[in-house]
Specification:
Layout (H helix, E strand, L loop, with lengths): L13 H10 L1 E4 L3 E7 L14 E6 L6 H18 L7 E7 L2 H25 L6 H4 L2
Parallel strand pairs: 3-4
Antiparallel strand pairs: 1-2, 2-4
GO molecular function: 3'-tRNA processing endoribonuclease activity; ribonuclease P activity; tRNA binding
Enzyme class: hydrolase
Pfam families: Ribonuclease_P
Length: 135
């Protein structure tokens, strides 16, 4: 389902974003920061195999509304193309840095896809929940 995800595959509440930011793992580069956090049973009624969920954060520092929406559109499409390589039992937040606008303008989808693939590779396998990290 490249580019589009049903509402249940999106993060929409502040608390969901905060949990991923605070308890998840992250990897960043000049253009993007990717956060990942595994969701589990009892997590808002979600089963672990419900598939990945995506949240995007593109601030005004990236540009005006037209620029931000273009970056979000390209990020969504790139993420869902890379989603097959990601653990399906996790929530993800992609934060666009100001340089993401220039990358999207110069190299379009290929540039964003490459930057995102680099982050996916950098996170490596399934992110471990914080409770397992201390054991």
């Amino acid at each position: 389902m490249p580019g589009r995800a049903p509402g249940r595959r999106r993060l929409s509440r502040s608390a969901e974003f905060e949990r991923v930011y605070r308890q998840g793992r992250s990897k960043g580069n000049r253009f993007l920061v990717l956060y990942a956090f595994p969701h589990g049973e009892g997590d808002s009624g979600r089963a672990p195999d419900d598939g990945p969920r995506l949240g995007l954060s593109v601030s005004k520092r990236v540009g005006g509304a037209v620029d931000r929406n273009r970056v979000k559109r390209v990020l969504r499409e790139a993420f869902w193309e890379e989603a097959e390589r990601l653990p399906s039992s996790s929530d993800y937040v992609v934060v666009a840095r100001p340089d993401a606008k220039g990358l999207a303008e110069r190299e379009g989808m290929n540039g964003i896809r490459t930057a995102l693939a680099e982050l996916v590779d950098g996170l490596g396998g399934s992110p471990a929940p914080p409770s397992e990290a201390g054991s």
